[in-house]
Amino acid sequence: GAVVSQHPSWVICKSGTSVKIECRSLDFQATTMFWYRQFPKQSLMLMATSNEGSKATYEQGVEKDKFLINHASLTLSTLTVTSAHPEDSSFYICSARIPPGTVPSTDTQYFGPGTRLTVL
Amino acid sequence: SQKIEQNSEALNIQEGKTATLTCNYTNYSPAYLQWYRQDPGRGPVFLLLIRENEKEKRKERLKVTFDTTLKQSLFHITASQPADSATYLCAPGDDYKLSFGAGTTVTVRA
Fold first, then answer.
1. How far is A37 from chain B (nearest CA, A)?
2. Are B32 and A6 a contacting pair at CB < 8 A?
3. Which one of A75, B6, B58, B62 is CB 3.0 to 4.6 Å from B101, fit for a cystine?
4. Which positions ≥6 away from B53 have C-beta within 8 Å?
C-alpha cells in the first residue's frame, strides 16, 4: 500500500514553455501532498505544501507565480512550472502524507518516483 | 536556521559488515526523525521513523537510535549486502514537515 505515482518521469522542454507534473496517490486519499526539488548531490528541498481544496503553502524563496500548485482532489496534485528556464532544470519529487488515524504512521511521507525536468 | 548534517558523503564497506551513519541537527527540536533510502534517479523510500520519546527502533537488519540531548541519530545496517548500496537520507520532522540532510551514499563491496 501507500503508492504514489508521478507523471511524466522525465520531460525536456524549450525555455519559455510551461510544464505540468502530476502526482497521484494510488491506493489512499492524501489530504496533504508535498513538492520537493532536488539538485544533483544535494538534499531534497521542500518547495510547497499542497492541501486538498485550499491554496498551497510555499516555502520562503519559492515563487508561487512560477510554480503553480493545484490539489483539486484527494488523490491528485499538480505542479506547473511556468515559463521554464534552464535554471529550473532539476529533479522534482512529490510526496503524500497518510491521513491521521490511518496506519502505519501519520507522520510518514510516501514519495513518488520523481520527474526529471530539463529545460533547453 | 535549522541545519542537518550527515556525517559523510560516502561510506564504503565490505559485505557482511555493519554500516553506521550519523545524522546531527542544530537549531531544531524535532518531534520525530525518519530515515529514507534513495536510489539514483528515484524518489526516497521510507525505512524507519523514531519519535523523540524513543531511544531505539529496529526493522530487520536496520537499527536507528535517537538522542535528543546530543541532537543526533545513528542509523545502522547490519550484515550489509551489495543490495543495500544506496543513498540514505535523514529527515527530522515536526508536525507534518520534514527537513532532509544531503544524504550518505553507502557502497557495499562483495
1. 11
2. no
3. B6
4. none
DSSP 8-state assignment for residue A111? E
Query: What b/e string do you get for B1-13 counting C-beta neighbours within 10 Å, with b at 16 or more?
Result: eeebebeeeebeb
Quote helix, strand, coil % in chain B, to nearest 5: 5, 60, 40
Per-residue pLDDT of chain A (120 residues; tens, 9 = 90+): 689 999 999 999 999 999 999 999 998 888 889 999 999 888 899 999 998 888 899 999 999 999 999 988 889 999 999 999 999 999 999 999 877 666 555 678 899 999 999 999
Centroid of chain to Cα B25 = 12
pLDDT digits (tens, 9 = 90+) for B26-50: 988 898 999 999 999 999 999 999 9
Residue B34's CB is within 10 A of a number of other CB atoms, namely 24
Give the distance from residue A60's alpha carbon to the nearest chain B alpha carbon, in angstroms.
12
> Which residues on B lie below 8 Å from A43 (Cβ)?
4, 89, 100-103
Cα separation, A107 vs A15, whole angstroms: 38
